[in-house]
Amino acid sequence: MPVVSADVEPFAVVFADDGLVPNNPMPFLVYKGVVPVENDHPEKTIEGLFGANGWGDMWRNGVYDYLHYHATVHEALGVARGHARVRFGGDHGKEFEISAGDVAILPAGTGHQCLSASGDFCVIGAYPPGPKMQITRPTPENHTKALKTIPEVKLPRTDPVMGESGPLVTLWKKHGGSKR
């Protein structure tokens, strides 16, 4: 497992419900440059870190270029290669430049959309134990359903980067994540 500095703190922001993208009262987190990916197998490095911290059901790809969210599960996105400009939080959210070594953690309901990416951009996606990921598009009907499912999504037992004592666990409990 890669060595991650224990004193790294993620950037945290809470996105408001915009009427189509529900977002979440728990903060969206971004760890900048937290995973050492200067090797021949950065995908395996991130997969090893996420797996060791209890996040699985992984995939390798990019981030879709259309606005979507996941209403039944939280998601971690680890950038293995390249860089991209991604808008998180829906059309009224915030644009972030994410690059190799960064990890974004999206509480259920957080909108996301890739606006541009380098040709070599590769992300590892992972989820805590629980329901399978479902892609949800922002419509009034989906928003109504998501407002019922999001509060039922269990709080992860671990931070995908820092494990059991990671900032995610503390921050999400503090911001209303109570399901265990």
From TrEMBL:
<dbReference type="InterPro" id="IPR047121">
    <property type="entry name" value="YjiB-like"/>
</dbReference>
<dbReference type="InterPro" id="IPR014710">
    <property type="entry name" value="RmlC-like_jellyroll"/>
</dbReference>
<dbReference type="InterPro" id="IPR011051">
    <property type="entry name" value="RmlC_Cupin_sf"/>
</dbReference>
<dbReference type="InterPro" id="IPR014500">
    <property type="entry name" value="UCP019307_cupin"/>
</dbReference>
<protein>
    <submittedName>
        <fullName>Uncharacterized protein YjlB</fullName>
    </submittedName>
</protein>
